Amino acid sequence: MPCAPFVVPDGSVHNYGYGYPRWFGNGYRAPWLLMPNPSMFVPLPSPWNAAVAQERAKRAARPRPTLSPGTQADLQALAAEVEAAYQYLRNATAEDKAEARKDWIRARDDLEQARIKAARELRR
Question: Phi and psi at residue 123, in whole multiples of 5°?
Fold first, then answer.
């Protein structure tokens, strides 16, 4: 026996489920419609907020970590190499395709390894 239609969190409407009222009390409200929405809660103004903001402003901002110019240049060169290898692969003749694909994959792997090393350098 069909029960009252209800809206699922993704926005679709379900008008089935013979046991719906049996699961959710009266069955006319799904529990997620009664749950508070976190976006409704606004932080209350209090003297503590101002004090914390003041302390944060006094503290020196930590500079965002950046890669060294040499590493940046290496990554750009490797990216250009991958692009060139891909263009060569696109324009290669049928007999050169296999070798061109290997070169392109090798260049891609080199770039990936360099990116991993650069990420390690950033974390240090």
Answer: -70, -25
CB atoms within 10 A of CB 56: 9
- DSSP notation for the chain: -----EE-TTS-EE---TTHHHHSTTSSS-HHHHSPPGGG--PPP-HHHHHHHHHHHHSPPPPPP---HHHHHHHHHHHHHHHHHHHHHHH--TTTHHHHHHHHHHHHHHHHHHHHHHHHHHH-
Considering the domain boundaries, does residue 46 fall inside one?
no
Q: Are residues 76 and 118 in the same domain?
A: yes
Residue 97 covered by a domain: yes
Shared domain check, 74 and 29: no
List, for residues 47-71, the tens digit of each pLDDT value: 888 899 899 899 888 788 899 999 9
The pTM for the full model equals 0.51
**What are 27's two structure tokens?**
């069955």
User: Using CA atoms, how far apart are residues 109 and 104, in angstroms rounded to an integer?
Assistant: 9
Amino acid at 91: N
- Cα 4 to Cα 16: distance, rounded to the nearest angstrom: 8
